Amino acid sequence: xFREFISSSLTIAEMEARKIRHDSTELxxxxxxxxxxxxxxxxxxxxxxxxxQFIGNFTYTQFITPGVLAQSVLFVAxxxxxxxxxxxxTGILSKLLSTPSPRSSIIVGKALSASVRGLFQAVMIFAxxxxxxxxxxxxxxxxxxxxxxIVVFAMCVSSLSMILASFLKTRDxxxxxGQAITMPLFFASNAxxxxxxxxxxxQFISKFNPLSYVVDAVRAMLLTGDYSNLLVDIAVLVAxxxxxxxxxxxxxxxxxx
Length: 257
What we know:
By secondary structure, the protein is an all-alpha fold. The chain has helices spanning 2-22, 25-29, 32-46, 52-55, 60-77, 80-90, 92-97, 103-131, 140-168, 171-187, 200-206, 210-224, 230-251. It has one domain (2-17, 27-40, 59-256).
């Protein structure tokens, strides 16, 4: 049973990944916004005197690179539900749900394919950071750890997107809710400023924001080398991912009703 689940999930993930190979335009266009954050926002704020007292012995561009990297994955994965709605409209999703494959394997397969998109975004942002001279840590285990976190985070957000698609059911609504979710998640995290600078009510909200834990983990592996919170960050991210995958597996049939 477990082997069938894994086989079905990987088959669906491979099928979805082939779509990227045939048309990667969306991935390249979605790089524009995070690249601007890194190139413009990072450069401008690095020039502000005294900003290092809030972020430690790093430039501001160094500080926000992990946040922009995570943001780029968030922006790609949160709109994955639009693909599910399109598949509903073309009849592909109905055919998938009528196969013997468990619904959970379909969801996991699609979430894995979203992680391929997330990895592409992360690698491109990382490469851009190196090109503009951002000094990051180079340790093979840390790099693998960052990639693993990105995979899980993309699965987490794409599962949330599929849950939303199950209820919203149209591409226009998904576009609207995607835009409404991404910026609050971004600004209610430690992506572009330390949590300590937030008002107390926003600090409370940030504790329930998976992006905060992702940025913290990536920043530890790419920048600070402080692993004291790494296990907690990963555990919280995995918990969010498992929860969203489970809910999406239950709600996905609603989209074709």
